[in-house]
Structure formats: C-alpha cells, structure tokens
Specification:
Structural class: alpha+beta
Distance between the termini: 34 Å
Strand content: 25-35%
Number of strands: 20
Radius of gyration: 21 Å
Number of helices: 14
Oligomer: single chain
Largest sheet: 8 strands, mixed
CATH class of the largest domain: Alpha Beta
Strand order of the largest sheet: 6-5-14-15-16-13-17-20
CATH superfamily of the largest domain: FAD/NAD(P)-binding domain
Bound molecules: adenosine-5-diphosphoribose, P-hydroxybenzoic acid
C-alpha cells in the first residue's frame, strides 16, 4: 500500500491528524493495534481547550460537541472548608468545554468512516523503517498476514507504550521524567454531578476531584496510594472518603450511587526530545505525558497535531519544509508549558508523603495567594483554558 502520511495509532491524536489532512486532500492510513470498541472503551478526561474545539470544527467534527458539550466559565478550588472560584471568562474571555474524550474519539471515528478513511485495526508487529531517509515505510501484520505501507512521512501517534518513540535512536533522543508518589482512584457513576463546575479539593487526607461527563454522569477521583488496587475500595468506602475531602456543603449534597467504572491511574510527567527524527514525527502521548490534574493530555496532543498538520499542509501545498522543520521546536515549546502547569497544579493540590511542616505551610500560602490575587488567578486561568498555539 502507498500513502502520503502513515499514522501509527488510532487514538485522538492519530484520528484528528488523519481527518484534518483528509480535509486538505492529503492521504493517510491509520494503523491501530486494538479494535475500535476497545479504543472507545477507554475512560479519559474531557476538558477541551478552545484550541482543540477549533481544530475539531476545522475537521468537521464539532457538531455533537457544540450540541452536547457543557461550557464551563470557571472552576472551584477548595482547601479544608475554604472554597473559591477561578473565573476563566473574567480573566481570559475564554471558557472550556466539558465533553468526554471518548465522545471526541467517537466523533473522529465517525468522520473518518464517513470519508472512507483507511483505518487498519488489530495491527501487530508494527515496525517503522528508513525514517531517516526520504522513503520511509512501515511494516506490520494483521492476523499473521504481512503488510507494508510506503509513505512520505510517518506520524507516531501511538501513545506512551507505542513503538514510534522507540524508533528514534537512544543517542538522538533525551527523555525527562517525574513519577509522582501517589495515584488517582477514579469512578464513574450515573448520578448528577455535585456541582455544575469542577471542584478541585486539597484536603489533609489528600486530593479529590469532582468532575462530570454530563448532567447524569459524574466522574470523581481521590488521591490514593500506589499500592492500592481498585478492588481494595468498595463504592461505600470511596464515597465516604470523597465526602471527607471536599467542603462540607458539597459533601452534604453529594448524590452517591453504584460505580459503573472504577480504576487507578498512576501520575507521571514525561517528555522526549526531539519530537521529530527524519520523516518520523511524534504526536501526543507518544512524546509526552502529564499528570491529569490540569487536564492537559488531550489538549497538548491537539496542539502537536495542529503544528504537524500545518507543516504537512505547507509541504504539500507549497513544497516548503519550513513548517515540518520547525515542528519539534514549536511543539516542545508549548509541551513544556503544559508540563509546568500540570506539575505546579499537582504540587498545589496533592499531599506528598515526604512533605515537611514547612512544605505544608508553603502549600497553604500558595493556595491563599491564589484565592486572594486576581493576578494569580489570571495566570492560572490562562494556563487552564490553554495557552496560544
Ligand atoms: N501499533 C499500532 N497502534 C498502537 C501501537 C502500535 N504499536 N501502540 C499503541 N497503539 C495505539 C493504542 O492502542 C491507542 O489507541 O495508539 C493509540 C494511542 O492513543 P492514546 O494513548 O490515547 O494517545 P493519543 O492519541 O496521543 O491521545 C492522548 O489520550 O491517553 C490519553 O491522556 C491522554 O488525553 C490524552 C490522549
Ligand atoms: C475528568 O473529568 O476525567 C477530569 C477533569 C479534569 C481533570 C482531570 C480529569 O483535571
């Protein structure tokens, strides 16, 4: 098979890139390891920056998002029984939209299928060849049958555990990592959200987050030990712990119910540099990971896609390689700012095992400063709604 762009990974990054390229008449093939149902079964954050909304509009995939997404003009932050609101619209003129990542992915799959896009599912043994030449190609198997795609470029959108990052030689790539000493225990419940906006809570017992997918589906998290397993937590134990970590007035009105999903996610900050090697370009989780605190995973994948799509479009429409040559530098400049914000917000809201009494005083002072300073709230709001592309 021959195409212009071979895309490894059928998650949000790969699908969004494929659909944007298609809208400009640029051919691609998406190679996905799992089935479509498996990909759609993943539960992920759903706070969309305006940059991602605009990309989905350009991709022709934003109709359901605008019909069903929830516009959030701010968020609530609590520590102890103190709670204050950071007003995104007041400070930046921009809200965020709450719309599950699963729904974004579902809309992108629907668009690719409507355009007869080529998506190969359940691929195995993917190997990227000759990425450092002008004639890269990808080999893989499907149900044991060998396949090959010859292409102009390869987009590595295959996530943290994919093959693309590993294709870049160790003496070329540098990796940066911070592993956090706790995880997030999350549940999904068919209950009305406790608040119409998100509540980020710092409590002496640890972090908690009250989020949602829609007015009938709530998503809650509590910081937990890395040695915890989901089966260690009954629903009742989860609800009791959550109530102890959020302000009393929120706990009183919390509607509990059976969990329909329960899982634990570790927290990690990770970046690989460069995000390009020859004709291979890394996008999204293949190149970087953020702790979910700032909801930057999907949104930073989106800015990568924006830079790569823009560069590839320029190459095919004008012959200039300026955009693809500056891809890694542009993408990383924004990635590191998202990493900083996610690390800062995680440091502000979680309890760390090795925190000294002085550290705790600094954390409360940071929260007090954020509560009392419009400048601090504006800085947070600018990062949360998304820095410019
Ligand atoms: N071959 C083909 N496909 C692969 C391979 C491989 N060797 N390895 C992984 N994949 C697929 C995975 O099955 C997955 O569907 O690549 C896709 C990568 O998707 P994501 O992990 O969702 O990464 P990305 O598309 O960059 O989206 C980033 O997803 O993980 C969240 O928090 C993250 O919200 C962020 C978003
Ligand atoms: C979620 O709804 O899953 C979510 C929202 C905001 C975050 C993290 C997760 O910061």
């Amino acid at each position: 098979m021959k195409t212009q762009v071979a895309i490894i990974g059928g998650g949000p990054s790969g699908l969004l890139l494929s659909q944007l390229l298609h809208r400009r008449g640029i051919e691609s093939v998406v190679l996905e390891r799992k089935t479509k149902d498996y990909v759609l079964g993943r539960i992920r954050a759903g706070v969309l920056e305006q940059g991602l909304v605009r990309l989905l509009e350009e991709a022709g995939c934003a109709a359901r998002l605008h019909a069903e997404g929830h516009v959030h003009g701010g968020t609530l932050i609590s520590y102890g029984d103190q709670m204050f609101r950071v007003d995104f619209t007041e400070h930046t003129g921009t809200p965020v939209i709450v719309y599950g990542q699963t729904e974004v992915t579902r809309d992108l799959y629907a668009a690719r299928e409507a355009a007869d896009g080529i998506i190969e599912y359940e691929v195995e043994d993917v190997v990227i060849h000759a990425a450092d030449t002008d004639a890269p190609y990808v080999t893989y198997t499907i149900h044991g049958q060998p396949r090959r795609v010859d292409c102009d470029f390869v987009a590595g959108c295959d996530g943290f555990h994919g093959v693309s990052r590993q294709t870049i030689p160790l003496d070329v790539r540098k990796e940066y990592e911070k592993v956090y000493p706790f995880g997030w225990l999350g549940i999904l419940s068919e209950t009305p959200p406790v608040n119409h906006e998100l509540v980020y809570a710092n409590s002496p017992r640890g972090f908690a987050l009250c989020s949602m997918r829609n007015e009938h589906l709530s998503r809650y998290y509590i910081q937990c030990s890395l040695s915890d397993r989901p089966e260690d937590w009954t629903d009742e134990a989860f609800w009791q712990e959550l109530k102890r970590r959020i302000p009393a007035d929120q706990a009183e009105k919390l509607v509990t119910g059976p969990s329909i999903e329960k899982s634990i996610a570790p927290l990690r900050s990770f970046v690989t540099e460069p995000m390009r090697w020859g004709r291979l370009f890394l996008c999204g989780d293949a190149a970087h990971i953020v702790p979910p605190t700032g909801a930057k995973g999907l949104n930073t994948a989106a800015s990568d896609v924006h830079y790569l799509y823009t560069g590839l479009r320029e190459f095919y429409e004008t012959g200039s390689s300026a955009g693809i040559d500056s891809y890694s530098q542009k993408a990383l400049a924004r990635v590191w700012k998202a990493e900083r914000f996610s690390w800062w917000f995680s440091s502000l809201m979680h309890r760390y095992p090795d925190q000294s009494e002085f550290d705790l005083k600094m954390q409360v002072a940071d929260l007090e400063f954020l509560r009392s300073s419009k400048a601090a709230q504006k800085a947070m709001a600018e990062n949360y709604v998304g820095l410019p592309y």
